[in-house]
Queue: 4 jobs
Job 1
Amino acid sequence: MKNIVKNLRLKRRGVALLAGMHFYGNPSTKLKIIGVTGTNGKTTTATLLYKIATALGYKAGLISTVENIIAGEEVPIPELAPQTTPDPIYLHKLLNEMVEKGCEYVFMEVSSHALDQSRVTGINFTGGIFTNLTHDHLDYHKTIENYFGAKKKFFHMLPPEAFALSNSDDDYGDAMLEHIHARKFTYGFNKFEDFHGEITKLDFNGLLLSINKEEVYSKLLGKFNAYNLLAVWSACKLLGFDMVKVKKVLKNIEPPRGRFEHFTSKNGVLAIVDYAHSPDSLEKILLAVQELKQKNGRIISIFGCGGDRDPFKRPIMGRLGASLSDIAIFTSDNPRSEDSEKIIEQMKSNLAPEDLKKVKTIVNRHEAILEGVKMAKRGDIILCAGKGHENYQEIKGVKSHFDDMEELQKSFRQK
């Protein structure tokens, strides 16, 4: 079996090299490509960098979970291959189109699956960013060590002239930079880093950071976004961007779709949609929501766990969601071939008695959101987590249109 897997990976590596270096003329050598890897924050970091580069007048490309963009024009993500990082043939096709349309920079998410499957083999990266590493995708990688090893491959790929930028506050941040050839840089809030940040102000209006004693303001919310902003600022500095202009762009930049996307209802309820679908990301988003909560306000969380995916994170997410919310509504989230009720029972299996009292079970996600809206009062915060930018619900092999933001807005109109 090991030989079969090895041969399959060698074949994938061969396909990647053939696609990039021969058929498309190795387009990555004609671009400055920045890869972003980590469990959480990849989409936000890559998207912000793309928006900044575009605002500064550069032609740029974006390859992300949410969208692929070439010089301002969105390219549909293939329905049959909706990976965070595309297969090597389609990836090099995108890069070639970016070259043809005059792009100078490309900002792309680099997933652990892509690294393990050699999808980015042969790509010439100008820089790499590591955000964090937490419990996720263990249904595929089996162990956290394998997961880390997949991420580490990316930094071993970087050439000596490239930069490697790592979050030193993360448990794996320093190890990610060990024994690599690229130029090493760190960012964080807790230690002495190359790019040291301090949170000066954090509220519903946004974030005010001090980065190496430079004040930087953003409309983005939450401490987890402070890390994303610090990574973005650091990368812009390493790319030689005009930091005075970068600072101005950051003041008005919006988050990517489905990443802490929010609105306030007419009756004063803050509604948030976020892609958080791992224990760490759910915990961080709920802690960020707690920072925004008014004195007498409540947090109403609505979330589930995906089917045919890592079952071990379900009780962890259930416990985190219930303990950090005033009311937690457990519901479905792409159950796929599994039974939603059984998934929810697994989510409830590790709850303390006091947290179990706060949990409501509503399998139908539409009804769950509607119930959350009916319960919400002025000053409350509703968090719909897990789906973010996704506009579908997959049940028993059938994908039906479903958008958390649309459902929230519709439910408030009905209230």
Note: The first strand starts at residue 32 and ends at 37.
Job 2
Amino acid sequence: MAATVFAACNNKPKFMVEGQIENAADAVLYLEENTLDGILVLDSLRLKADGDFRFHVTAPADCPSFYMLRVGGERICFAVDSTETITVKAAVPDMGRNYTVEGNVSSQKMKEIALMQQDLQKKIVAWEENEDMYPGDIADSIESALSVYKEKMKQEYIFADPASAAAYYAVCQSVTDLRGSFMLFNPLNDRDDVKAYAAVATAWDCYYPDAPRTVQLCNAAIRGLDNTEQPRPAVAGADGPKVTEIGIIDVELPDINSNLRKLTDLKGKVVLLDFTVFAAKESPQRTRLLRTLYEKYSKQGLEIYQVSVDEDIHFWKTSVEHLPWISVHETDGHAVSSYGVESLPTFFLIDRNNEIVLRSDFMKGTLESNIQKLL
């Protein structure tokens, strides 16, 4: 039995971490996994004079996982989502800054975030230790720096690609001041921070719906949206306010008449959010299919919100001029990246409560049967 279990474990897909740690002869290098339950040591070795190392580890099964290479108190963080090979080169001391990482984009972005976070932390410590500054000026300086830093994180790492491991890493950062350690993005009590959480939660729910990290993100975002929701007048017979942002990332784009159309304005309807290119060869046939579905179910509450990314805007306008549903156009790719769209066409089904329930990549059954269930 033991041999069978051992063989089964060896047959599982693995990823590899290799590289070189200079100036660390005879030091112990640990490979650790940062799990939701804490730090788990996966393997270790004693470095030789050349600093070369290599670890083979079982690959994550349900979503990207986060790992660390550690020598003493110095760590290098990286992410793995498959069976890739991660190559790390570093030097002791200051291993946490003096390193390179190759193998996937998220790990490289995590390095960028880690270095900026370290610089932010140094500024906070310097202000707090500056005896020539008034306490109010110290607090204002820290608050201003945190605000600028968070905005950079949101625009360049979170909203730019919310489905990535780097976005998760960015939204889960913590910093320390005289009050102690606290999360940079407050997932429970700050409305803007909660929206950043909700963006990552929505994207991860599309790609990794059953992963524990996704459940954690979604639960925190839902609680945060509920905690920070603006009070509304009571309505007779209503069940109370509903959370809207967790289900979808809002999209607000112009139609052919330059009127801005918001996705969240369609709450109460079953929405087919469709990302497409009308210049594609299969587009006419697909449009006929959508028209059939729209004519059949629009009176029951179906709406289509179609986002075109065609380069030729005139061609797009001509193509959608007589379509009965909402057709908008995007040029900067923000909505496409926010929803983690990697191929076109891709669609999402959104229920009457503004919550995504299906992505085309994971659809079972026909599109019509899934629409009928929601209606």
Note: The longest strand covers residues 14-22.
Job 3
Amino acid sequence: MNACQPNSHSVPAPPAEDTKVARPRGTDATRSPGTAFGCARDFLDNRFVYTVVSPRARGLSVGVNVNPDQFCNFDCAYCEVNRSEKPREAKLDVEVMIAELERTLALAQNNGLRTRECYQHLPEELLQLRHVTLSGDGEPTLSENFAAVVEAVTHLRACGRFPFFKIVLLTNASGLDQPAVTEGLRLFTPRDEVWAKFEAGTQEYMDRVNKPGCPLEQILANILSLARQRPVIIQSLFPALAGQGPPASEIETYARHLKDLRNSGAQIPLVQIYSATRPTPHSECGHLPLRTLSAIAQRVREVAGLKAEVF
């Protein structure tokens, strides 16, 4: 299909100015704008494309489920995907996906999302499209279709049927060194972004929270390699596990890793500090208080000298 053709189808809290408003958990957007940030992804009867109001996007994000088969080499405690259930699809169909993306972008552009329950009472600014994400039920860089997805999405954008939209890759960073990923990222413009997961100081803590299929050193090496070429935003989700957040020693080591990345030439314009906000299959996983998240962000600023925001 030619996408250019129309488609019919426990440290002291930092000063108050350093904190952000925490987004409460919930699924009813009619109560307050903040609760929209707890809404699950809305697939709009699509197979591969969904919408979500994201605090880190500061508004509407349209997502591409690059791994509908749920293939991932991490098993994070806070993941909202229930891998005991049958996957949505066995494989991404790029042609179907791009048709769905066209329809969804048109819906967002024409304010058609107002008919959806989660979005009916939101302020207008939260329904402004902020970006298109490459993400989903698994790790997108491990998809055999990754390069084809990037090519299709960038081609749709180049056709000019919609106002320019930013593309954001959400990744656990384990596959950033794969040739197909390197090929796909060459199509990114300087306005597009890579958000790389990094949220542990030690392998022990990473094994507990993320259960990764690769060592911490590989994540750090992949982030450094890419961030020397283009800016990489760090995404760090710290959950409460059995009611407890990460120990202070873990945060200190985490912040020193960020400092080492910066000193080695990594371009890191922002570190996103946040916690679990949507329901997960793991009952032991919860949301950390704003005070704790703000203190983590403050240590990142003090130790690594990087901009850090709480979401």
Note: Residues 6-35 have pLDDT under 50 and may be disordered.
Job 4
Amino acid sequence: MIAINGWLTVNNFVNSEKSNILRSMLVNAAEKCGISLTIKRTGELGVPIGGGFVGLPDFALFWDKDTHLAQRLEDSGLRLFNTARAIELCDNKVLTYMRLAQCGIPFPESYASPKAFSAINTDSCGFVSNAAKRLGLPFIIKEAYGSFGQQVHLAHSLDEAYAVIRSLGGREFVMQRFVKESCGRDVRINVVGGRVIASIYRYNDNDFRSNISNGGKMKEYRVSEAQEKLAVDACRALGLDFGGVDVLFDGDVPTVCEVNSNPHFKSTYDCSGVDMSLYIMEYIKERL
């Protein structure tokens, strides 16, 4: 008997095959747990700012990065998994690294770009050369907002760095030390409720990024105690109920590359056979 009702809140404009498969996995997992999960596109939840939502369910599994809407739903009394604040911290990589630094969690040395109100004039980019002196060449330029590695660039020279920065049109970014040992490889560690439930090794022989969507490959991987602790600590620091943590190989000390509040776990399922959606729905049921 289904006694719990929830929303699976998804982006209004994303309708890819991969996203639809993931949504179906979550809905099916919810049914197995005795939960009725209804897909709600963010565009369906348009009410005036300051207005109240009607017909709210018991919870929402917020599978998007619309933090304004997430906060408004929370203000209306709806329990969100993940919370608006956790999604906000993960969505903006500057905020991610700031929070990780506050909690003493290692990540590659990083510099945030100054605030820009329009396209950057590289004549005023002395901060880039100063960062390059500390980070060395090549170094990473990573847009603050982005997914699937598409907004991550590797600059081998200052001229390349300036070209990338000009192309960003004033969008904020992070300059980060390039971890050569982890070039084209990392570990995706999926965490639910403070414990690791699955992990995969991702690698790409033709790109410095390991993302599967960029042509990377994957295989099963057993995490070390240090990697497991790092992933769990990172999710805890960011307030995540669940998340996907990308961990780099950096000498003897693993470091965080990025943390995802809405991990695309289909690849992990294909590789490991572990269905993250079931763990997520069981976790939600336990907390309602």
Note: The radius of gyration is 20 Å.
